[in-house]
Automatic annotation (TrEMBL):
Record keywords: Endoplasmic reticulum, Glycoprotein, Glycosidase, Hydrolase, Membrane, Signal, Signal-anchor, Transmembrane, Transmembrane helix
GO MF terms held by the record: Glc3Man9GlcNAc2 oligosaccharide glucosidase activity
Organism: Bimuria novae-zelandiae CBS 107.79
UniProt similarity note: Belongs to the glycosyl hydrolase 63 family.
Any Pfam family hit: Glyco_hydro_63N
Protein known as: Mannosyl-oligosaccharide glucosidase
Amino acid sequence: MARNSRWSSSPLRVLTYTLLVQLSLVDAQVAEIEKASNDSLLWGPYRPNLYFGVRPRIPKSLMGGLLWTKVEDHTVQHTFRHTCEQHELDGYGWDEYDVRTGGRQTIHDPANLVDITTEFIKFPGGQHGGSWGARIKGTPRADAPPNLKTTVIWYNTLEGLGHLQADGDAEETGAEGDVVLKGMTPELGDFEVRITEGKGDHPQLNHPSAQEKPLHRTLVASSHIPEEALWQSKQVLFAQLKTEIDQLGSKYGEENPPPPAQLYTIRHQPGQGNIHLIQKVFEGVFEFDILFSSGSAPKPITSEDLTIQINSVTSGFSTRFTEIFKPQPPFVKERYEEFSKSLFSNLIGGIGYFYGDSRVDRSDDPAYEEDNEGFWEDAAEARARNGAQLEGPSELFTSIPSRPFFPRGFLWDEGFHLLPVIDWDVDLILDIIKSWFNLMDDDGWIAREQILGAEARSKVPEQFQVQYPHYANPPTLFMVIISFLDKLDAVKADTSNEKVLAEKSYFMQLANREAALEYLRKLYPLLKRQYFWFRKTQAGDIKSYEREAFSTKEGYRWRGRTPQHILTSGLDDYPRAQPPHPGELHLDLISWVGMMTKSIRRIAVYLDETDDAAQFAKFEEAITKNIDDLHWSAKDKAYCDATIDDYEENKLVCHKGYISLFPFLTGLIDKDSPKLGAILDLIGDEEELWSEHGLRSLSKSNEFYHTEEDYWRGPIWMNMNYLAVQQLLNIAQQKGPHQAKAKQLYTDLRKNLVRTVYESWKETGFAWEQYNPETGKGQRTQHFTGWTSLVVKIMSMPDLEGGRTRDEL
């Protein structure tokens, strides 16, 4: 007994107990932060492939979506809107949006002669992630007839366990007043969805069929269909419409057919089901609400609650946006703030939740080593021979590049997407990063394109659906983690922490340093695993060709190469050495690995992983020296790719463009480097990369400029230009031999980029995937609100000219 007493009061026992208590407190704090963040992020318009679609971050659960069309004629099969498509609208997107509170979207639909507004608002409270409301408004356009007839359909589907029932009587000719769906799932508990009667006139038609289904009533069709078909709601609707059309046709014949507004209606059959279609037909202006009330919330929400909260969210967004992203001179006019709000709102309005299986080829075919001459032909035969297996299901919370064309997760895009978002909501980006790293396999591979489920695959040609575990992608998420460390350092230096404490719902990880460090500790093993996977699978061959370099290990080569493309690099058709050779070394890849090494070393230092930090420091030194030894061309005064010539000797292949800038873009060139002058000369040369609209992807003087696909062979890309602006700003703010030149290039490039994106947005209503270096016009994919939204950060960067403005701005 005495010995136990001595042990219980011994210093070791006290220390152990203290550490356990501290760890327990940290765990509790982390759990509290995760719950609060998950609750505020549970619901959202997380189906960004639709013009308006709502779901929770739950694998199989309740989902909803909106469809509409004019019903003035018999063209509805072509004008029914549901999924985002290119070149069918005059513009659409979020004017204001915050992923934690909600926002407003406007949709300009010329073919249907109507403008649609969707407002989505969250209501916190309860045990199941709170409630939400959506308001749908329609306003006929100026060229529409005064009595424009529009049919609008809201639907809810339910996957997984639970039930969903529409109240009402199938014997009636439609529902008077509000339509109510009542349901329950294990994750959401009890809930109801109320689709209000709304405001607006309805067609009064002089046809016998109008007595059977008077259009001032709401029609509800409930049914059970196979779960795997629930995402095809538009096809389900069309099937139901066809059944009704056939019956009406046989009843009234071709001599007296019902008018379109009456003909294109569903049968009123409310009841149990896993899909419920709710149809309204309006004449002129209309408005109605969708109100989701959680059974665990204090009370059901009403339209009056929604009106109040819409006003609060709108004013709150504007105030906060101005504080965080206020455009700096010369972009001080009000139109630039509206433009900036739109781009940023559409960036985070493109955040989606995806769940499903994916196609992966894990055959480990020897051809995938790509180590023989002609390897691309062997690899193509292997891909055709091996096929793919379905893996998963997996889930991903991600910001997508483009709602109509790329509505899914892209690994290298994501890092660029999150660079503006981290200024707005740190906890959100940490959640997205965690979601990506949860996809990593045991080797350290994350598929570069996440095509999860049949709905996602429906947007991707079959030849691009399969993912390969030896394919890499630029590791841009490391850039975001470093930005997070910068913010942690800033908070530590600023003891007042007024901004962080005032907005804890966005910066909980910053407000609680221990929670932030715990997040990094959990992420760090995954970062290491991916880092060493990168080094192993993308290694280049230095020894076999007797290349002279500081290190015999630090050379890298993208796998997945063909004569026309290196899709894995992200710079698809950028000119490379011809023909491809297993001895190639790719400048952009060693630069990405250098950035990754520099980043993970800093993270290791942050977490007191001293042995790891020392190892990464050695790698970093070797990479930096090898970039000069293996890739610098004194003749061309540029960094270049390397290959092997006909005499089995090293040969530099210089296609000046973005590739040439990569050591600079990734922050591996010191401000005092003698090579920096040549890099700045290349950037500023109008016969090479410089244009009045931004930096060209390929030199104007290159033989391949604007040839073949012309994807990365001249057009201006905002992600690469952002990296250039960022690095120019770094050089311009430090004393050194190149400070003055960097300052001038930074100032002019910043103005050119903002003007280019703004003018195209003003003209077309869209941000674009890329911009023409001769005209500045947006081109390729429209509504590309992924990394093109980096212009928001560019606008908020400092003006180094002392606030001077130019008339054209």
